[in-house]
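chain below, 242 aa
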Amino acid sequence: MSLCRFQGGSGGLNETDFEAGAIIPIDKPPGMTSFDVVRRIRRWTGCRKVGHGGTLDPGATGLLLICTGKATRRFGELMAYDKVYEGVVELGRQTRTDDSEGEIIAVRPVPEFTPEVIRETLHAFEGEIDQVPPIFSALKKKGKPLYRYARKGIPVTPEPRKIRIDEITLLGWRRPDISIRIRCGKGTYIRALARDLGERLGTGGFLKALRRTQIGPYRVDTAPTLEAFGRQLGFHEDFQNG
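prediction:
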């Protein structure tokens, strides 16, 4: 299989190269779904087979791996890579979606925790743990995505899943926000981690912001923005509003 790895520039790749197979790291902007990015790159490259190696929620930013042509055979490999995220958890409020997009369903006071208490609580999530996915997720139950049940108000309880979190680093604490870096295995929901962290601290919480910085050997600091990649292919589009 021919494989071209896009690293920060188009490198003269043409439609034939994209069909042969390319892995394109993109720094996804906020407000776009992962499939929005796929659609644009499909149009720009003229390649029929385009997909991504791991979803980012619309509000999240950061590294998204786009595969074209024969490189789409590597989806399984890419999705199995460990990942690194940086996020902000807001304590004191819970939302239906476990992120900033959902309606607030509970409000609680937030004590002035010491950094040591927060670090100790974060470390309790390291290792192999059982995690209950968010109800607003694409995981399926009885053949339907969980979010379809949630949108219709149908009660559903997601099954816990084994996940692995290798390391959680406290980057900052300014009430009510905790800034963290997470290195984890596949299948980890950072929204669920934010929810569970808030519960463990007795305040509730949700994921206020998220950025993916690494997938296996691929790093976001070597990836172009979607807008920059488009310009390199001769397309000038504004992505501020998705």
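Helices lie at 15-20, 34-45, 75-80, 115-123, 146-151, 190-201, 226-232. Residues 116 and 211 are 24 Å apart (CA to CA).
thats it, cya
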